[in-house]
Amino acid sequence: MAKAKYDLILYVKLTNPKVRFVRVVDGMIWDNVAGALAAAPTYADTAISLTLSTAIGGCPVTIPAALPEGDYDMLFYDAASPAYTDAVSVGKRIMWNGTGLIGLPMDL
Question: In terms of pTM, does the model score above 0.90?
């Protein structure tokens, strides 16, 4: 079976959509530049840019293939220049098995 093009779609219109993944069990954050979880990464390295699709009417999300399995808070931001002071626009709790989502994301 072929992998889906997207893991989910966020149907919220954000001008500068970004997403971060924080592992619930220990607070480790996905560092997209290093391609690994980190305890204290550079904030900008953890903000993954998304593209608003006008055809879909939302932001398609592909979860990083190397993200280890576990429960994560998937935090969406609307920020042109990512900074730790950015407010979370939308938060979802996900269960990730290393290759796909398990069940449906829960609102935070």
Answer: yes
Nearest by Cα to 77 from 55, 59, 53: 59
Letter for the amino acid at 25?
V
Spatial neighbors of 71 by CB under 8 A, at least 6 apart, are 23, 24, 25, 93, 94, 95, 96
Consecutive 10-residue averages of pLDDT for the chain (108 residues) = 77 92 98 97 95 91 96 96 93 95 89
3-state DSSP call for residue 43? Answer: helix
Rounded Cα distance between 67 and 77, Å, is 19
Give the torsion through C-alpha atoms of 75, 42, 71, 2, to 10 deg: 80
Map out the domains of the chain as residue ranges: 8-107
Strand partners, 17: 78
